[in-house]
């Protein structure tokens, strides 16, 4: 219930995503943010959309590493906004709420002094006790691990020269997701100090890490960028590299579904944004608006990477499992598939993943 209030305070009042020390990255159930209580140059806190719980990993506020939403708002000086939001959300007047003892206790609402000023202290230890899982440290890579990374790159039908850099990451004790696997592939963003890492694991959960500030789009290593009239912006660095092998047009990569805060110098005539299916509908409007704002004079086309037209009811099936890299590995990817997202009938018939499609036999 707190999502709108959180966005109002962070984006509207505190100006998050407008400077390097005010970073907000949306996730499914929470926001990853830089610490609002002191100047912080990396995302080091979480605040949950539903419960409103604020967690800090690199400091404490009044001796606490977790704050409830009312404490969070009060210490930042937005207690009156908090109270107004609660009353509006439950459609209750101030007089009605003041007489409801359980309501006041549940939401920690005080109607005595609306201009209450609260002093708070921030204690930042010299050594961080808890390190967020998004912070990584590269360490030396063994010959075995390097070979393991090269085998993974070869399976993708790509090479180190394409921009996939084998590396080894130090796993902090607090990060219990990957206690065994330390080998990863790094994607270096040459236009910034941002690096994206992908662990060499089969599971799709918690397989990505990152270091630095995400303030530029990914550019494919060794590709000559010519400021083409039409450009592709592709979700995922790996698929971006694959697309660049088939298309003459300039190709840029997105780190997941996040849009960097930057001001591109070149504005192409047309931009095609290609996203994975899984979270397309819940993010397409936000991403379209971000690109429209960033490229006001460009035509923006946004769609899932792979689509199937169902003849029986005249609707699209969105492919849920395969991406461009999968087709590239099997020698099935073509320029037309990238341009249209539509698969040739012979590919659909030979793949059981499309068994619900009317084309499947």
Structure description:
The protein has 361 residues and is of the alpha+beta class. It folds into three domains: 121 residues, no CATH class; 75 residues, no CATH class; 137 residues. Strands 1-2-3-4-6 form a five-stranded antiparallel sheet. The protein has a five-stranded antiparallel sheet with strand order 8-9-10-11-12, with helices on one face. It is globular and about 70 Å long. The two termini are 47 Å apart.
Short note summarizing the structure:
Helix content is 27%, strand content 21%.
**DSSP helix fraction:** 25-40%
The major pleated sheet works out as: 5 strands, antiparallel
Assembly of the depicted chains: single chain
| Strand line-up in the sheet with most strands | 1-2-3-4-6
Beta-strand level of the residues, as a percent range?
A: 15-25%
State the helix count: 11
* Structural category: alpha+beta
Radius of gyration: 24 Å
Quote the average pLDDT. 79
**Tertiary shape:** globular
Order of helices and strands: HEEEEEEHHHHEEHEEEEEEHEEHEEEHHH
- The tally of beta strands, per DSSP, is 19
Give the tally of structural domains: 3
Q: How far apart lie the N and C ends?
A: 47 Å
Low-confidence stretches: 113-134, 173-180
Secondary structure elements and pairings:
Layout: H1 3-13, E1 24-26, E2 30-33, E3 45-48, E4 54-56, E5 60-61, E6 66-67, H2 69-76, H3 79-89, H4 94-98, H5 101-107, E7 122-123, E8 137-139, H6 143-155, E9 165-170, E10 183-188, E11 195-199, E12 208-211, E13 218-219, E14 230-235, H7 237-246, E15 250-254, E16 270-275, H8 280-294, E17 299-304, E18 307-310, E19 315-318, H9 324-329, H10 335-340, H11 345-349
Parallel strand pairs: 14-15, 14-16, 16-17
Antiparallel strand pairs: 1-2, 2-3, 3-4, 4-6, 5-7, 8-9, 9-10, 10-11, 11-12, 13-15, 18-19
Helix pairs in contact: 2-3
